[in-house]
Amino acid sequence: MPLVQLCQQTEGVARLLPSFSPGLAGNAVGASCHAGLVPVTIDDIRRVASQLPRSYEVVVRDRVKFRVGQIVWLALNREETEVGFAFPKEEREWAVASEPDLFFMPRQSDLRFNWIEARLDALDEARMRELVIDAWRMVVPRSVGASIPDP
Length: 151
Fold this sequence. Notes:
By secondary structure, the chain is of the alpha+beta class. It contains six helices and six strands.
């Protein structure tokens, strides 16, 4: 069952049973629904990323990735619950410390890259759009990046 549908069902139960708290359900779906957040899906990401100039989608070892040329600038895990994307190394620790529910460090072998990971269930569509466009801008020429307005 899609995460958004689960969220809607959880919200429906909360309306019927005022004592029900989805945030206490102990799962990411309940916590996201409780916060009023509708989690983004791969289709939401695909809708934004596929419209960016020079960006194209590939599937590598059952993982969806977006590239500009040969540079991977966005990748989803196999379960499509987490997304990694281009992000300045200098700001990575600050981002993880300030929003630990959203961001986390990439695996050890990826620390050498300008890269960070995020949980999809902690992202809303507006924030996802901002992060996707900013990641894409890191890998395209400035003149191309300037062709897309800020989110």
